[in-house]
Amino acid sequence: MKIACVTYENENYASSIKNEDVVLVQYLQEKGIDIKIEVWTDSDVKWETYDAIIVKSPWDYHYKLDQFNTWLEMLKYQNIRILNPYDRIKWNSDKHYLQHIENAGLKIIPTFWLKKNEKPDLLKYFKLLSTEKIVIKPSISASALNTFVHNQDDIIEAILKIEQLLQEQDFIIQPFMNQIQTIGEWSFIFFNGEFSHSVLKTPKSGDFRVQSSFGGVAHLKSAPNQLIQYAKKYVEIFAKDCLFTRVDGLDIDGQFFLMELELIEPYLFLLHDKNSFERFYKALKQLLNIN
User: SS3 for the chain, per residue?
Assistant: First the structure.
């Protein structure tokens, strides 16, 4: 079985992150897996020669969404196995998926949606969310692109900014959660539905973004079993048949509140836990029925 591990073209886009893909592919090759790294935008790749495609790190997909969707459609049309599955990738590419999760009775950070071309009354959301700060982010994005925190004192600036951005797409509004700065944001990594490892991500002082490109730091950390079981519920309902899933959220008084369910291109923190490579390998074999 021939497999492609898909990444992106611009290596400088996430240069602050160690490239786990190269180490992962080398590990899988040493295990006898016929796998190669390919760039999803490379027009010279003969995708029809592959039996399965691992959509691992197309970290520029949200800049080229139409092209990305066309590429996925092409793979589906050619009956090439996609990991994670096509329908899960499409569903997960727009943060409106959070509505589905909330409707299923699972906890998410309280969220309101702003429609494209809407003229929002941002002041009302401070009261609706019982918060002193609001977080505004695009419905389709990654790596904290066009994500802002505002309080009521700078709301005029926020309105001008968001009205311009709303000409392009929908946005979401959430309360700023102090737990990000005081405790950190949990990431739980699952392979084929089974828990592998967890990390706790913290922003640099004075910031709210936990991504390493903004100075955030992630540490391998054992999570309370209660939180792991909470996180697993999201996987069981919304990430069936997924090779990998990252569940990001906060511990609020012992309960888990989802921030994002990452099924498309999550950094899996494999280099933080050396045993995770073996778990990934076993999950891949199981999903693809490789002996």
Answer: CEEEEEECCCCCCCCCCCCHHHHHHHHHHHCCCEEEEEECCCCCCCHHHCCEEEECCCCCHHHCHHHHHHHHHHHHHCCCEEECCHHHHHHHCCCCHHHHHHHCCCCECCCEEECCCCCCCCHHHHHHCCCCEEEEEECCCCCCCCCEEEEHHHHHHHHHHHHHHCCCCCEEEEECCCHHHHCCEEEEEEECCEEEEEEEEECCCCCCCCCHHHCCEEEECCCCHHHHHHHHHHHHHHCCCCCEEEEEEEEECCEEEEEEEECCCCCCCHHHCCCHHHHHHHHHHHHHCCC
Judge if 102 and 228 occupy the same domain.
Answer: yes
What is the per-residue pLDDT for 13? 46
Query: pLDDT tens across 37-89, in order?
Result: 999 999 999 999 999 999 999 988 988 999 999 999 999 999 999 999 999 99
For residue 276, pLDDT over 90 is answered with yes
What confidence score (pLDDT) does residue 161 get? 82
Same domain? For 188 and 122 the reply is: no
Does the pLDDT at position 18 exceed 70? no
Domain, as residue range, for 71? 2-92
Domain end residue (candidates: 125, 159, 175): 175
Take residue 99 and report the two structure tokens written for it: 């509505």
Task: Read off the pTM.
Answer: 0.91
User: Is 281 inside a domain boundary?
Assistant: no
Q: Is residue 291 part of a domain?
A: no
**Do both 64 and 121 map to the same domain?**
no
Mean pLDDT of the chain: 90
